[in-house]
Amino acid sequence: LHSDIDSGDGNIKYILSGEGAGTIFVIDDKSGNIHATKTLDREERAQYTLMAQAVDRDTNRPLEPPSEFIVKVQDINDNPPEFLHETYHANVPERSNV
After folding, report:
1. What DSSP state is assigned to residue 75?
2. Distance CA 46, CA 20 (A)
3. I need a labelling partner for 54 at 20 to 30 A (CA). Which of 35, 74, 77, 87 fits?
4. Cα separations in angstroms, 77 against 6, 41, 85
5. 70-97 pLDDT tens trace
6. What does each of the 98 residues of the chain score in pLDDT, given as a tens digit?
7. Per-domain residue ranges for the chain?
8. Whose CA is closest to 21, among 7, 6, 4, 1?
C-alpha cells in the first residue's frame, strides 16, 4: 500500500483494519507493506476483507479515503485421496467425450 502524497518524510502513517488485521495481517505503518503472519488455509477461511488508509501521523486525520481490498485464499490439495470401500465399479459409455 502506498499513497501518492507520501513524500517519504515519515509524516504519513498507514493503518489496516478488518478481518484479521493486526493478527493474521500486519502493516508496516511507515512503508505501507502488508504481510501475512501465518500460512493461510482456504479450508479455514476462503477470503479476508481489509481496509487500509493513509493518515497524518501527528493528527490521525485521514489523508485519502480508505481502500478496501479482498485477499482470496487459493486452495492447494494437501490431503491424500481416501477410498472408503475396497472395490469401486464404474461404466463409461462408448464415444464419451474426454
Report:
1. P
2. 13
3. 74
4. 41, 10, 21
5. 999 998 777 788 888 889 888 999 998 8
6. 888 888 888 899 999 999 999 999 999 999 999 999 999 999 899 999 999 999 999 999 999 999 999 999 998 777 788 888 889 888 999 998 87
7. 1-97
8. 1
DSSP 94: T
CA-to-CA dists, residue 62 to 3, 43, 74, 90, angstroms: 12, 36, 33, 63
Kindly provide the b/e burial profile for residues 4-42, where b requires at least 16 CB atoms within 10 angstroms of the residue's own CB: eebeeeeebbbbbebebbeebbebebeebebeeeeebee
Nearest CA-CA partner of 64 in 17, 4, 7: 4
Of 54, 74, 42, 45, the C-alpha closest to 10 is: 54
Instruction: Share the mean pLDDT of the chain.
Output: 91
Q: How long, in residues, is the chain?
A: 98
